[in-house]
Amino acid sequence: MSELLPTVTVITRVIRETPGITTLVFDREMVFNPGQFVMVWVPGRDEVPMALSTGTSITVQEVGDATRELCALSEGAKIGIRGPFGNGFSPRGRTLAVAGGVGAAPLLSCALKGKVETFLLGARTASELLFCDRLEECTELATATDDGSAGHHGRVGDLMAGRDLHGYQSILVCGPERMMEAVFHTLRQEGISARGQFSLHRYMKCGVGVCGSCCMDPGGLRVCKDGPVFPGDRLNGGEFGKYARDASGRKKNV
Amino acid sequence: MVSLLPGPVRAGGVDLKNHLILAAGVLGTTGASLQRVLSLGAGGVVTKSIGPFPNEGHAGPCLVVMEGGILNAMGLPNPSSDFVDELVPLQGEPVVVSVYGGSPEEFATVAGWFAGKARGVELNLSCPHAAGYGAALGADPRLVEACTRAVADLGIPVWVKLTPNVTDITACGIAAERGGARALVAINTVKAMRISTGMRRPVLGNRFGGLSGRSIFPIAVRCVYELYEACSIPIIGCGGVSSAGDVIEMMMAGATAVQIGSAVHSDLRVFERIAGELYSPDGEPSAELVGCAHV
Ligand SMILES: Cc1cc2nc3c(=O)[nH]c(=O)nc-3n(C[C@H](O)[C@H](O)[C@H](O)COP(=O)(O)OP(=O)(O)OC[C@H]3O[C@@H](n4cnc5c(N)ncnc54)[C@H](O)[C@@H]3O)c2cc1C
Ligand SMILES: Cc1cc2nc3c(=O)[nH]c(=O)nc-3n(C[C@H](O)[C@H](O)[C@H](O)COP(=O)(O)O)c2cc1C
Ligand code: FES
Question: Which atom of ligand 3 is nearest to the CA of A225?
Answer without folding.
Answer: 4
